[in-house]
Structures are given as structure tokens and as C-alpha cells.
Amino acid sequence: MAAKSIPWNPVFEMGIVEMDDDHRGLVRMINTFLEVVDNDEGLIAMDEIFRGLIDYTLHHFDREERIMAEAGFGGLDGHHLAHLSLKDRVGVLRDLYLSRPGCEAEAEIHRFLADWLTNHILKMDMQYRDTILASRGLLLKSA
Ligand SMILES: [Fe+2]
Q1: What pLDDT was estimated at residue 141?
Q2: How many domains does the chain fold into?
Q3: CA–CA dist 55, 60 (Å, integer)
Q4: What is the rounded distance in angstroms from the CA atom of residue 30 to the CA atom of residue 114?
Q5: In terms of Cα–Cα distance, which of 33, 25, 109, 32 is closest to 59?
């Protein structure tokens, strides 16, 4: 495992099983990316990471939006836009890396993935958490 790998942190945990599983998958992909960079594995390995990320954005975002819609979450439209922008960004970064592979592109991808974890998951995804948990009768209210 790469020295700077990201351990799964309980703060990522939403209590929504499908989302937690998906988010663990994203953390695994980020750690694979860090390993690929560490070991200087090159284009083929990096292209594989991007395939994984593109597949992830297609399936995870759909799943997440379906769950939000089912629970009647009011912020769905805004969240959908944030997903579109993450999808676009994955494509742009892939093109950047393939046309100019190297430290600069890697640093940019690293920044993007770290931002995805800390801003998208920890801030934006957490906004729908209570609505989903409540719709499933799983919201434990503290008095
Ligand atoms: Fe999301």
C-alpha cells in the first residue's frame, strides 16, 4: 500500500449501506491511483484507473440520484448538477493525463480526488443523509 494511502474513515460513513459500499470503492480507487503514482506504473495503469472512475461515476451517481428521488430529497437537482460537473472533470483530467502524462497531471488528479472525497462526500452527500435515513425509518433523533 502506498505510504500516503487514505484509510477508510468513520467520518465518511453515512449509514446508508449502498452509498457506504460505493464510497469505500472510491477510496479504494484513490488508493490504487496513489500506488500507481508511487510506483510510476505509467499510462496503462493510469488509463485503467480512469476506466474505473468513469464506470463509477456512471453507476454510483445514478444509484445515488435514484435513492434521493425515492426519498423525495429536495436538493436532487443541485446534486445532479454537481455530479455532471464531476463526470466532466474526470473526462477532462483523463484527456490531460493522456496528452501530457507526468507529475503535473498527477498532482491535478490527486487534488481533484481529494476534493471529491472531502467536499463532495463529506459535505454534499451528507446533506441528503438524514432524508434517506428518515425515509427508511433509520433516523435516530437525539432528544
Ligand atoms: Fe453525490
Answers
A1: 67
A2: 1
A3: 8
A4: 8
A5: 25
CATH number at residue 44: 1.20.120.50
Residue 59 covered by a domain: yes
Quote the ligand 1 centre to 38 CA distance (angstroms).
Answer: 28
For residue 20, being part of any structural domain is answered with: yes
Task: Tell me the C-alpha distance between 97 and 104, whole Å.
Answer: 9
How close is the Cα of 120 to the center of ligand 1, in Å?
A: 6
Is 87 a domain residue? yes
pLDDT in tens, 108-132: 999 999 999 999 999 999 999 999 9
Cell numbers representing residue 25 in the block: 470503492
What is the C-alpha separation between 80 and 142, in angstroms, rounded? 30
* Amino acid letter, residue 21: D
| Identity of the amino acid at 4 | K
Decide if 99 is inside a domain: yes
Domain of residue 87: give its range.
14-135
pTM: predicted TM-score of the whole model, two decimal places? 0.90
How far, in Å, is the centroid of ligand 1 from the Cα of 101?
A: 28
Taking CA atoms, 27 is separated from 17, 20, 76, 113, in Å, by: 15, 10, 24, 9
- For residue 61, how far is its CA from the centre of ligand 1 (angstroms)? 6
